[in-house]
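> forwarded from #structure-qc
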């Protein structure tokens, strides 16, 4: 579901040469040719393209075209999230909340969800609100202090 929403949102991006490569990967993904999607998106992701990083992370989460590896997905999501990509911040928050690919950490989850929520991600706003009842006020304060540091770590 999240990957479908992500890929639909990425269709709205304007085309540049890198976008053209991304679009080739997207067409391959839509056609079930995940290996080609990886071949198109990996160089873009390595070059710092946050959309390609998010897409590649999704492939690692699902095991499409690559061995399923949530820990590698977390690395790609983190690279995009640190560039301000709200979708990546949302996904990282969710992974920390559930302990998938990382050790479960509700404070870090709250911090990533806060960043995504502040960017206008409605699902992040809901997830962050649901964590309010699971954290103490001190933990929330810690998360809010942590959030800007997470987004600037490169």
């Amino acid at each position: 579901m999240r990957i479908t929403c992500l890929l639909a949102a990425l269709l709205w991006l304007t085309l540049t040469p890198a976008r053209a490569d991304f679009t080739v990967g997207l067409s391959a993904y839509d056609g079930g040719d995940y290996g080609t999607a990886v071949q198109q998106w990996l160089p873009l992701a390595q070059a710092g393209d946050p959309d390609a990083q998010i897409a590649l992370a999704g492939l690692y989460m699902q095991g499409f075209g690559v061995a399923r590896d949530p820990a590698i997905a977390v690395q790609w999501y983190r690279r995009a999230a640190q560039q301000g990509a709200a979708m990546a911040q949302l996904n990282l928050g969710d992974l920390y909340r559930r302990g998938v690919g990382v050790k479960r950490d509700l404070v870090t989850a709250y911090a990533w969800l806060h960043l995504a929520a502040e960017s206008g991600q409605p699902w992040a706003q809901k997830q962050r609100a649901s964590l309010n009842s699971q954290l103490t006020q001190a933990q929330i304060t810690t998360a809010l202090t942590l959030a800007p540091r997470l987004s600037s770590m490169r």
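QC bot note: Residues 85-154 form one domain. DSSP finds nine helices and no strands in the chain.
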